[in-house]
Amino acid sequence: MGIFSRKPAYCTICNKQVIHKNKAKREWDVKSPLCSDCYLNKMQESYDASIIKKCINCGVKSKVTDLWEPRLQWDMVGLLCKKCFDEKELDFSKEKNFCGVCGTKLGFIRYNPKNNWKIKGQLCKNCWDAQKAQIDRK
After folding, report:
1. Whole-structure pTM value
2. Which residue from 8, 37, 109, 137 puts its CA 20 to 30 A from 89's CA?
3. Domain of life of the organism in this record (predicted)?
């Protein structure tokens, strides 16, 4: 058998020949490879709408399909309801687009506060200079 020769693969559930091999997840208790139809069916079974989880922010119980996954930048683990997701999105965009001290809209150039300043968000040039001068005076 050559290095590039391939044997045809067959789905372990429906026994159809597969072109693209989908790998089954461990929790499904099915051996790989799977055809795309069987893979989607197994995926739908595992993420069924009958699973109920809590919102990590407010604790409201809801179906998994109604909950939202937080953005990577928020550094959160779990799911959020739509209301909490929207609130968090507004807070994040406000923190990202406005100065953390005076609240003015930030332009292209933004300044990150130093860790010992204990300021959340980014700063405009004036606030950064003022904060730096205040620290230098001490």
Report:
1. 0.53
2. 109
3. Archaea
